[in-house]
Amino acid sequence: MRTGEGELPEGGIPVDEKIVGQGSMVALAYLCCYNLAEWQYTRQSCGLTGAHNLIEIEEMRQRFDNSPCAVHLGMSLVELSSGYAKVKLELKREFLNWENMIHGGVIATLLDQAFGCACNTLENIHVAVQMNIHFLAAASVGETIYAESRVLHAGKRVGTSEMTVFDSQGKTIARATGTTVSMGPRS
C-alpha cells in the first residue's frame, strides 16, 4: 500500500509510506494525527517504540504460548505485533461457576493474557498494576472466544491499554482497560 501526502488510504486512516514500507509492526508503533481541514498529517510517537523484528516476534509468540497458565487453560495467540495481541480460548465445562455460567475469572485471565502479550512486545518490560473490566454478555461452553489488546500509550514509566473479548460471531463479551508500569529495558 502506498499513499502520497494528502491522500487517504482505504479506511480513511492516514499512512506514512516510510512506515508502511518497513512493515505493519512498525506502522502500529505510531499514531497518526490528521488535520481534516488541510488534508495533512504528521505521525506522533506515543511511546510505542522498539518494534521488534519478525524473529523476535516469533520468539515472543513461543514464550507466550508456552507459559504454564496459557498451556493449562488452552489459550493461544492468534495474532501478535508491536503493541497488539489477539488470544483465543475454547470454553470448557471446567470453566463454569456455581450458576453454570463461565466464571468471570476465566474471562479476566484471557484479557490479562492478551494485555500482557501486547504490552510486552515493546522495548521495555511492562507489568500490569491495574485492570478494569466490564462484563457485557455471557459466553457458553464449547464457544471459542477471543481477546484483543491494543497499547494506547507506553511511556517511560506508565502505559495504558484497552482490551475486548468477543465470540466467533463478533458479540462483545467484555471490555477492559489496563495500566502498566515499565520495569525498564529488556536485557
Helix and strand string, N-terminal first? HHEEHHEEHEEEE
> Strand pairing plus helix content: what structural class?
alpha+beta
Helix content: 10-25%
Amino- and carboxy-terminal Cα gap: 35 Å
Order of the strands making up the biggest sheet: 3-4-6-7-8-5
β content, as a range? 35-45%
Number of helices, counting only DSSP H or I runs of 4 residues or more: 5
Radius of gyration, in Å, reads 18 Å
Q: What is the strand tally?
A: 8
Shape verdict: globular
Can you tell me the residue ranges where pLDDT is under 50 for at least 5 consecutive residues? Answer: 1-51
Largest sheet data: 6 strands, antiparallel
Q: Report the mean per-residue pLDDT as an integer.
A: 77
Task: Describe this structure as you would to a colleague.
This protein is an alpha+beta fold. 22% of the residues lie in helices and 39% in strands. The protein has helices at 17-20, 24-27, 54-65, 68-73, 104-119; strands at 30-35, 40-45, 76-81, 84-90, 124-135, 144-154, 158-167, 172-185. The longest helix is centred in the middle third of the chain and has 16 residues, at 104-119. It is globular, with a radius of gyration of 18 Å. Residues 1-51 have low confidence and may be disordered.
Summarize the structure.
This protein has helices at residues 17-20, 24-27, 54-65, 68-73, 104-119, and strands spanning 30-35, 40-45, 76-81, 84-90, 124-135, 144-154, 158-167, 172-185.
